[in-house]
Structure formats: structure tokens, C-alpha cells
Amino acid sequence: MALIIKDWEVIDDPQVEVHTGGDSPHDMTLPGICEGYLLKRRKWPLKGWHKRYFVLEAGILRYSKHQHDVSEHHGSLDVSLAVMSINKKSNRIDLDAGDILYHMKVIAKSHELFYIWVTKLQAHRLFKKNEAAHVQSGFLQTLSVAGLAQRNGDLPAAVRNSSRGPPSVADSAAEYFDASDDVLCGSSSEVSDESGLSEGISATRKYRASISKTPNSVVPKSTGRRTTLPAPCPDNSHVGLMAILYNNIGKDLARVSMPAALNEPVNLLQRLCEELEYSELLDTANNTSDPYQRMVYIAAFAISGYSTATFRNRYKPFNPVLGETYECIREDRSFRIISEQVCHHPPISACHAESENFSFWQDQRWKNKFWGKSLEILPTGMVNVTLQRYGDHYEWNKVVTCIHNVLSQQRYLEHYGEVTIRNLKSNTCTCKITFVKSRYWGSDTNKNEVQGTVLDQSGSVIHRFGGLWHEGIFCDTLPTPKCVWKPNPQPKDDVLYYGFSTFAMELNELPPELKPLLPPTDSRLRPDQRLLEEGKVEESDRKKDDLEEFQRERRKELSKQGEEHVPRFFKKAKDSCGRDVWLTNETYWKLRENPGFANTENIILW
Ligand SMILES: CC(C)CCC[C@@H](C)[C@H]1CC[C@H]2[C@@H]3CC=C4C[C@@H](O)CC[C@]4(C)[C@H]3CC[C@]12C
């Protein structure tokens, strides 16, 4: 656990990782150089903050007065020997190596720049440690009897990777750019004590008691769909994540290739469909005449999409390849959805669902921030729902999802931040939902708290609701106070099956009668994902490599011809605020019916 003293956080020492993964492509490479002006605190003779030029190279941090005199640097420090603490609020970094102590601060109020320095420092610290371990293991090896020499796979990653050159400065500049373009900043979600926090806690306790008294929804009658997966999930506890993550700092997680053993047999397109697991809340909203009450159901729906996180922290979804599609028709829930990977850099997945009660669409993309122990996922883009009967168009943002202890088996997910739901067709009411960031001193009981209010035009509270995103939401201001949403119970043996809900199990099912109707780009036909689902991990891994290579080839070919990939079922547009959005072009279902995808020209992805 990171030690936290009044906004200061001691960053855990990077653990040198011993690889067992043989020829994994994710070995440690020399991290890129990081340089620029920072403020450095000085005690004597001129007390205060002074602007200095810092250069971080191969694990050594040097500084000088100006950029042009870096050669005559004033001081230098091996960053792997220093304890690093950071203060996210004031953008400060302290490096304490006992005899040498650097207090540094990012000049501009740029949280981005601060983040880049912190992650780069971590990468360099790990690199330097690895290097030290290399020297030490080399030393041990010389001592050991020749025949007992260590297997290649047991050596620290850096040892085997020495042949690969350091990334160029241009590379690392690209990486910075990647990390810094239009990112949302910081975590604004910590509820301050003045805002009635203790009140909130006791309210949540009350809500919680009421939720637990509410019986679970009746298990739906058999839908004829499968209730389990063909094979249990592989054990992936041996896969070393440290090198993968440190080497990809600043990059989109969705663009980083990882071994198949880390994956779950659904992809991000299918996970968009999974957000409709509780679509009956939208049906209810469409049958509720009171606009304020309707908003409560929309809010419950917005929260329900986050509940799978409780059980889904051990595996990551497959990244769809550009042009991949996924359809799902649910007669039992009377909706159908189509999604497509519309952009590769940055990765964007777009979806559109429709039913007699509602439409639902979003394009999902996000940024990552890797803080050493945790990884924050900052989604951009809005979720949209329209209700057929009232013509309402609701729009809301998503909150931050944080993967805590990302490198260890104690991994867990947390959501925090504020959601504002607006009805673009009427300003009768808005809704504010707070996903409360858990306080580090708190026990488990203050985890996953959600509080919300529905406000009228003048800002008065009309409804209040709350609870926990993994247990349910209670609203005590409805004519009959009630639990508006409660997650379905997990199926038996869910731990063996990736923590999937029944709904998730059904996503990748491929009934024989469906197969001829699907375009060849449908995720259900993706071979590596199918192999993983069947428990053939190694074959899946190989297929995954081929498939990714094939995607790169296709991209090269296209750019050689000066062309750009054009999504097939979605078009780019601007929303009311001028943001780029991807909307359906309404061709999918028409083509499916006539002439049918077997009779159209399709791109070949695998
Ligand atoms: C490194 C690996 C093995 C650890 C597991 C990573 C898992 C937990 C990560 C990888 C990608 C992540 C998803 C990426 C994007 C979103 C959209 C966001 O609006 C809600 C969270 C959600 C749905 C994330 C949930 C957590 C997630 C599934």
C-alpha cells in the first residue's frame, strides 16, 4: 500500500521482475530521454524555487542552469536509489537518495507534464534496477557451475533484451504527444468534507440496508442460449505485467499487444453491448410519464453499466482490429445492436442499439494514466439514449475507472467522478451522479458508493438516490420508495469462467443458424478469440500474432496508396457541442437483409 501523508504519496519501489515467459516481446528497453525545465527548491544560499534544466537519461537525472549548458551540469542522481514521492495536487516530485535530496515542481500548472515526468521517472527507475539485477545475476552466473547456468527465461527481462536498441528521441516525443493530447485532468471527484460527506455516508448505509432487503430479480426463463463457456479460463498469474506496462507508458492500452493468456474471450465491441445488460431500465423509463422519475431510471441505467467491474479484473478484453464488427439481436429484450471498430489511432469503438422503446449509442475511446501501482482509464466521449415515446435525448459523460494494484493479483477496479445527465430536448431536469472515491483510511464498507440527485430547472432537488454500484441503487423519494436497480446474481462457478455474468457468456455464442448471416468481419468469427474461448491458449496466442501482423500489413498497404480506412457502418459527425462523434449510417440491417452479407463485398480481416 502506498503511504499517503497529506497529499503526498510515496511511490512504491519498482520490483525487478523475473520473467518466465520465454520469448515474450515485452522486454524492458531503455526508456526514452526526458528533458525540460522544472522548478527546483534550494535551501541555500538563495532560498526558494529556481528554474533548472533537467535531463533524465538511462536512469540518471542531471540538471543545469540552462538548456545550453547541460554539459556542465550541477548535480546528478541515480534515480533507482532514491525514494520518490509525489504530490498530485501541487505537481511536486521529491527524490530522496539519503545524501542527495531533490525537490522538484512542474512549472506550468500542467498536470500532463507532471504526469509525464512521474511516469518517465518510474520507467527509468525500473530500468536502472533491472540493469543492476543484470550485473548481479551475471556475477552469480560466473560463480555458478557451468552446467547449472540459469535458463534464459529465468533472467530479468533486461538481460535478454540488450540487442534491441534504445528508442529514438523522436519515438519518445511521439509518446509524449500521445499522452498529452486533450486529456481530462486529475481526479476531481474527491468529495470534500464540507460537502456533507458524513451525511452521505449514513444515507448510503440506509440505502444499503433497503437494497439488501429487496429480493433479487427472478431468474429469467431459459432463453435457449448457452449458460456457460466451452472451457474454463487459463491461469495467468505468471504473466509479468510490469515490463509491459512500463514499456508502454503514455500509449493507449488498447494498442499494446499482450499475451492471449491475459485476455477474456469477449472484445471491446462486445463489451459495448454488455452495457445493455440492464436495458429493461430504459424500457421502464420509456413507460414512465413523470419526467423526474424517468430521469431516475436513466440514472440507474447509467450506473448499472459499471457493475460488471466487480468480477472482471483479471483479464482484459480483446482489442478489435480496424473494421471489425459485432452484431447482437436480443428478441427476448427486444433490442438489436451493432458495433464497429472505426478508428485505429486512437482506437475508437462505435455502437448503435435500437428497440421499440429506446435508441442507445456511443463511441468509446479513452486515455490511460499509469501511476506505477494503479492505472487510470479516462474515457472521453458521451453516452446517448433517446426514448421513443417522449422524444427525450439524454446525454452523459463517463467517469474515471481505476485499476488498483494493476501489477498484482490483488487487482481491483474503482470508478470515481461525476456524471451529469442532460436531456437535450428539454431542460425540465438534469441529474448529477457522484461515484465517490474511496478514502484510503476507510474500510471496505465505503467502497463503490454512488450518490445522485435529480434537479429541476431552478436547481431544487426533486429526487435523491444512492447505493453501491456493485449492490444496487435505492430511491427514497419516489411515490413508493424502492430499489430501482439491483445486479443479477452471478452464475455458478463464475470464477472459473472469467467472472462473466450470464449475459456476458452469451455474447460470443455462435449458433449455426446465425453464422451464414454474419459479415465475415463479425467478432464471433475471430479465430484467436474463439480459440481462447475453447481453452486453446497457445494456439490463440499464435493466431493473435498473425492477425495483428496482418492488420499492420493492411495499414501499410493502405497508406502506401495514400488511402485511409473508411468505416463501413458509421459516419463521423459533430454533436451539438462540436465534438467529433460516430453515428450509424443505417446501412447494416438493410444490407444484412438484402442482399445479405454473403452477397456483398467484405474486407478480410483474418
Ligand atoms: C492488464 C490486465 C490483465 C488487467 C485487467 C484490465 C481490465 C480490468 C481493463 C482493461 C480495459 C478496461 C476497460 C476499458 C474501458 C472501459 C470504458 C469505461 O467507460 C469503463 C471501464 C472500461 C470498461 C474498462 C474496464 C477495465 C478494463 C476491462
UniProtKB/TrEMBL annotation:
Q: Which GO terms describe its biological process?
A: bile acid biosynthetic process
Outline the segment boundaries, as ranges, of region: Disordered.
Answer: 212-232, 532-559
UniProt subcellular location:
Cell membrane; Cytoplasm, Cytosol; Endoplasmic reticulum membrane
Q: Which SMART domains does the protein's record reference?
A: PH
The record ties this protein, via InterPro entries, to:
OSBP_sf (IPR037239), Oxysterol-bd (IPR000648), Oxysterol-bd_CS (IPR018494), PH-like_dom_sf (IPR011993), PH_8 (IPR041680), PH_domain (IPR001849)
- Please state every residue range assigned to the domain named PH: 31-126
Q: Does the keyword Nucleotide-binding apply?
A: no
- UniProt keyword list: Cell membrane, Cytoplasm, Endoplasmic reticulum, Lipid transport, Lipid-binding, Membrane, Phosphoprotein, Transport
Q: Which domain of life is it from?
A: Eukaryota
Give the record's GO CC terms: cytosol; endoplasmic reticulum membrane; nuclear membrane; perinuclear endoplasmic reticulum; plasma membrane
State the SUPFAM superfamilies in the record.
Answer: Oxysterol-binding protein-like (SSF144000), PH domain-like (SSF50729)
Could you tell me one molecular function GO term of this UniProt entry? cholesterol binding
Coiled-coil ranges per UniProt: none
Q: Which family does it belong to?
A: Belongs to the OSBP family.
Which protein, by its recorded name, is this? Answer: Oxysterol-binding protein
Protein species of origin: Sparus aurata (Gilthead sea bream)
